[in-house]
Amino acid sequence: MSSLSASETVETVETAESVQTPAPATAAIAEKPLDPRPAIKVEDLHLYYRTKAEANPTLKAALIRKVKRQKVEQKVIKAVQGVSFEVPHGTVLGVIGHNGAGKSTLLRALSGILPPTQGRVEVRGRVSTLLALGVGFNQNLTGRENIVLGGLAQGWSKDQIREKENSIIDFADLDTLSEGAIDRPMKTYSSGMYARVAFAVGVHMDPDILLVDEALSAGDARFKERATEKMLELCENARTIVLVSHGLETVRHMSNHCIWMDHGNLVQSGDPDEVIDNYIEKQHKDREEADRKKAAAEAKEAQEDEALAAKAEKTKEALQKAIGEDV
Ligand SMILES: Nc1ncnc2c1ncn2[C@@H]1O[C@H](COP(=O)(O)OP(=O)(O)OP(=O)(O)O)[C@@H](O)[C@H]1O
After folding, report:
1. Fewest C-beta in 10 Å: which of 101, 173, 269, 294?
2. Probe ligand 1: pick from 2, 48, 49, max atoms within 8 Å of CB?
3. Minimum-distance ligand 1 atom for the alpha carbon of 107
């Protein structure tokens, strides 16, 4: 499930126009970086989305608005709020957190797709990004054609393309799933097949920094294992990987540093086992709290029902009494 984009940039620095608020505590990730300058440096990063959303999007409301020439109110979603961390070269950084915590948004900023609303992102090296399924490939072209197209976009020579094409196809190993699939349009692929091609292309871009957003989740166990091996190999060669995933065991297994995001904030940064265990504990506590609240609400509702029934009973008795007396 992925797309890829690669930049040839040796040093990318994204800076927001205004840096006003003081930076929160910076999370240094490794003690002995291979390169004294970090591969990634994020300082007081804020990322906001502006959307025009209506509470009640009805045709009537739209017509009234048009007649009255009213504008739809703009809503600001603060996806990332003041996050700072550094990633030395050769790190596999796992990024975990609940749905909507801001993980993918953070990755988009690292890849340069999304400029910071405020703060600073520095990325040193060639970046290859594996993002959401479907982006980056032409669905009507075959897997092979998309690989060649990707190579051309990278500025590879014909020989390089030929050499890498075979290696990418070998790595993706689609034939074991469906013979000849590599020469069929990608719109006919399953999400797992897509993930295989995307991941194979991404790692063959020879990136210094590989950004992976759940790209492996569609792959089967065997492919995940091979992808893991490949990522570790990249990492041994001082390449840096940022892996966003809900697969906590994958993150635990693969990463040597982990950050936990919650509602756009960085909750913890440190050893993967420690961070993941704390995250799991928090999830349990949240679930218990939610269960407790639900039970309390149900008990309250039952009490109110009982009180209403008692009141109705009393009213009925009073009515019967009144009717009886009248009679
Ligand atoms: N294109 C967008 N426009 C508006 N809001 C967005 C957009 N993309 C994400 N958001 C919002 O930003 C917040 C963070 O979303 P993001 O996708 O970064 O979270 P995430 O941690 O990756 O979630 P998940 O684990 O579900 O993929 C959410 O509130 C989300 O609704």
Report:
1. 294
2. 49
3. 18
